[in-house]
Target: Helix-turn-helix domain-containing protein
Amino acid sequence: MKWITRERPKIDRIACPWLIKRFIDRDAEIIFVPDSQVKVQAEVLQAIPFDVPGVEFTHYENRCTFDYFLEKYELKDPALHIMAPIIRGADTDDHSVASQSAGLWAISAGMAFMIRDDHELVEKGMLIYDSLYSWAKYLPQAKHVQSPVENLLLQIHRTYLSQKGRKKAKAPIWTIELRDLIQNHVDTNLNLSLKTVSEDLNINPTYLSREFSRYFDDLSFGEYIRKARIEKAIQLLESSQNTLSEIAYLTGFSDQSHFTRIFRQHTGKKPSEFRKNLAKRKADSKG
Model:
């Protein structure tokens, strides 16, 4: 099977060849051509075009081409679905999607800068995505600091700094504007990134990223957004008859499986379990 896409790959156009060769077609041939030649050469070479506008295998709404491959080929491996938001965040420059996205983008950009041959770039990139897959499959909960004593000391240190910061810091005016922006984002299901917010508030994004947790429940920007989405999801589970897929969409998650995973991380229960328990409590209260 032949696949063809734009030259000079970085994220999606390396992640997708990795996915194809590891899970779809081990002997697939990946072809890179100038952007303007992809569709023409696809017909000439009888190759399937991907990650270009106007073809089947491409971006849809806030999802990237890697997401579409998972859906198209019904790939259910949980590790792939842990990888998907990391790749999506790096490819769409929305690093609030996953904390690892910024690192993946930095590594990929640096590798593309060093390596000028596209096929060599994909060959080297295979190791990166093999490594990311191994982490997602076996180590997603692992922390760099493993010693209980080190963990305890770090926790005490963070708590001390957090309490010290709260005593001295008075919330700046921009935090009020930012809370409104985030609430509007959650209410309207709009895509919100740290870069967009920093531009709206006219604040340096590095400063905003560093200071954010001081005024928003000791959470990073991405963690706070996910928490707000889960709170909205709980409201919808309690007050509406929307399906879980509809609630996932209304709260800005890429799909139901992503929504279920993040919801369980925050609440300890799947959304379906949460809804059943809620219905049972209501029935018991009436009885």
Notes: The chain has a mean pLDDT of 86.
